[in-house]
Every structure is written in C-alpha cells, then in structure tokens.
Amino acid sequence: MALFDSISISGTGLYAHRKWLDAVSDNIANINTTNAPGEDAFRARMVDVQAFNYGGEGGVRVAGAKFGSAEGRMVYEPDNADADADGYVRYPDIDLGDQMTQLMMAQRGYQANISSIKAATEAYQSALQLGKG
Amino acid sequence: MIGDTTMSALHASLSGLAQRQRVTADNIANINTPGYLAGRVDFESALKNELADGETPVAGRSAELRSSDPTNTNGNNVNLDTETVIQTETGLRYQLALNALNGKYAQLRSALRTS
Amino acid sequence: MTSPITGIGFAPGLSAIGDTSGIGSLSAAGPAATTGTGDGGFADVLTGQIDALNGMHGTADTLARAAATGDLQDAHDYMIASTEASLATDTVVTLKNQAVAAFTEIMRMNV
To answer: How many CB atoms lie within 10 A of CB B103?
Structure first.
C-alpha cells in the first residue's frame, strides 16, 4: 500500500535519526572524559546509514557505527590524575561545535519524519471517507 | 456504466499523489544517507497527454526519477525544505482530488434521486 | 420474455437518468448498446447493465480481499471501486423499477 509503505519508510527514518541523536548525545557527554595513560581516548561515534533497497522498497538502514580517532588530542595538564609521565593527558578528539550542528540536524530530521507519518495518516483517513454521504 | 474520463483522471491523480507521498517519505528518511539522490514522481505529464489525446487515463504506478539537484560533500542531494514543501502540497492536492471525486459521486446520487 | 417490452424502448420516466448531460457519467445506454441483439430493446440494455454491475462488485470484492491480506496498493482504489459498485447498483435498481412501472402502466391500457 503506497500510503502504508510511506509510514514504514518514515519509521526507518525515525530509527536512524534516533540512533544518530544517541550517538551525538553520547559524544557530547564524554567530551571531557579522560582515561588512564596508555589507554585509547574516548572515540567519537558516528552512525553509518545506507539507503534500504534503493529504488525498491525504500527507507534507510543503520549499517553500523564508525568510530573516531583513538589518538585523541594531547593536553598538557601535569596535575591531572590521568596525566602520563610527561604530564600530558589524552582527551577525546571531539569538537563541540561540530557535535551541536549534528544534534540540530538529527533533531530536524527526526521531526521531519514525524510529520511524514502524520501526512500519510491524514491522507489515508481522508481516503476512507471517499464516497460517503 | 459508472465513470467518465474525469473520474478516471481523478483516480489516476490519486494514485500518482500517493506514490509521490511515499517517495517523499523515502527522501526524508534518507536526508543524511551518503550517495542518496532524491526521488521524484512525475504522473502529471502522462496524465495531461492522455487527456489531450482523448484517452481514458489509467491509474497505476508512474515513473520514478532521481533528482539531478547538486549534491553535498557526501553525495546526498536531499533538501529538507524542498521535501517539506512537496509533502505539504501533495497532501493538499490529495484532499482536493478526493473532494472532486466525492463531488462527482454526489451528482450521480442526486440524479438517481430525482429520477 | 423480451417480446412485451421490445417495442417500447425507453419509458418516459427514465429520461431523468438518461438525460444527465451535465454529468456525463450515467449512461444507461452505454455498454449494453453493443451487447444487444438486432432487436435491441430495454431487456437487453438491462441485462448488459446487470452484467457490468456484477463485474464491478467482483472488482470491489477482489480489492476488499487484498485490503484484508495487506496487499492493497492504495486505500482509495478500494473506496472508489466500492462506491462505483454501490452507485451502479442504485442505477440498475432504479432502471428496473422504472421499467416495471412503465410496463405495468402499458399493460393496464390493454383492457
């Protein structure tokens, strides 16, 4: 059903954007997380999406996650508990500005998919009134 | 027995609009998918040609094309504002076609009542 | 069974249905015009209309079944088919009633 397909396609869009929101929130929450020296920095998570059955059924699929750099960035903080022998601490390589932009895009995309579902529902309900009265 | 060219045209337009709604939902779900090109549905050209030739339009699946709008850095060319406008317009046109069809049915019913 | 009615053609009361020039949708002489035998006549018209009507109910039924199994492409397809079948039924019933009324009136004359 063209209109029901619409709803399930938007459903996949909701799921993908929610995963994106989760990843971004996680990145932002851990922007200053440091680990013990010798361990990797917290790696930013990025969601990898693909079109589901491009040209066919449609929708989007979360294919997996990609992770950012494990190197992080080194900051000189000798007083920090996680500082290494030289006084450097390994912070995650996450840019707050970039993450905030992504957050807004993910939110906007999520809301757009919600209106898609609403539009399909309204169209379907109106079609059911065809021929009545 | 029941049905004229106008009613067939309205039926064809309802099918085309529903397909456009689906393709737009697909575009919106894939706003951030790398390499994804926005889909477009064109049923109006075929419908206009059929009506101009005096043929009875047939409701069915119309051709789906991929938009040739410029892409961004990850190969995606979906523009959310464009898709939102298309979605709103499609919904309104669908309502209009339903109303037009209901109008035809009401005329038929009143002709039956007065006979 | 066609002989009493054959010579009548359309009864006067049917003109309101036949004369839907502003609508153009109801064609009481539509498909049946080609299915009648050489003598034409109202009975053939009515039979043709009933056949068309059965076809429309069949279509609506098939779509209803598709809707039940989740295979239906568009909701409006079923609504259109069912509305058309309902209007066609009303048309045929009206035609039949008008024909019976006209026939009865004519039969009353031959006393």
So the answer is: 11
Q: Are A24 and A99 in contact (CB under 8 A)?
A: yes
CB contact under 8 A, C86 and A124: no
- Max distance between CA atoms of chain B, in angstroms, equals 67
More confident residue, C34 or B48: B48
Q: What is the SS3 assignment for C24?
A: coil
CA atoms of A75 and C53, how far apart (whole Å): 83
Q: pLDDT (tens digit, 9 = 90+) per residue, A21-67?
A: 999 999 999 999 988 888 888 999 999 999 887 767 789 999 999 99
- If we measure between CA atoms, which residue out of C28, C25, C19, C20 comes closest to residue C47? C28
Of A39 and B96, more confident:
B96
- Report pLDDT for A133: 67
Q: Where does residue C37 rank: exposed (0-12), middle (13-18), buried (19+ CB within 10 A)? A: exposed
The token pair that represents B48 in the structure block: 């206009």
For residue C39, what are its two tokens? 């003598």
Q: What is the pLDDT of residue C9?
A: 38
Does any CB of chain B come closer than 8 Å to the CB of residue A50?
yes
As given in the structure block, the two tokens for residue B83 are 């898709």
Smallest CA–CA separation between A22 and chain B, in Å? Answer: 15
A4 interaction partners in chain C (CB closer than 8 Å): 70
Long-range contacts of C64-68 (CB under 8 A, 24+ apart): none
**C-alpha separations of A34 from A1, A24, A46, A73, B8 in Å:** 51, 18, 19, 11, 67
Q: Which residues of C touch B62 (CB under 8 A)?
A: none
pLDDT band at B60 (very low <50, low <70, confident <90, very high): confident
- What tens digit of pLDDT does each residue of C10-66 get? 333 333 344 333 333 444 434 433 443 445 677 787 888 888 899 999 999 999 999
Mark yes or no for CB contact B108/C16 under 8 Å.
Answer: no
> Can you say how many angstroms the Cα of residue B45 is from the centroid of all Cα atoms in its chain?
11
The whole-angstrom distance between residue A14's C-alpha and the CA centroid of its chain comes to: 11
Task: Name the minimum distance, in Å, from the CA of A125 to any CA of chain C.
Answer: 9
ipTM at complex level: 0.87
